[in-house]
Design a protein that fits this description.
alpha+beta; 98 residues; 2 strands
Length: 98
Amino acid sequence: MDKSKRLFLKSKRSFRRRLPPIQSGDRIDYRNISLISRFISQQGKILSRRVNRLTLKQQRLITIAIKQARILSLLPFRQKAKRGQSTVRTVGLRTRNN
């Protein structure tokens, strides 16, 4: 490969190593709100496994813990929208402002 073409190709490897989101001593439990709240978005949705960088087993346990905490009113089901912001919904092919 020509040297000039190699400059434009990006490496797929990440040079930064990030710490795993769940340490070995952390217990995934519905009572551990500080741990659980890291895996919920601003709107109150459970973040995906790819975003969280979790294993399949950890993601299942986090999901169950979040649902149990919501049922027991330790976490809200939805975050309240800030006042004055309008949300845009798509319904079919039309968009609607609220």
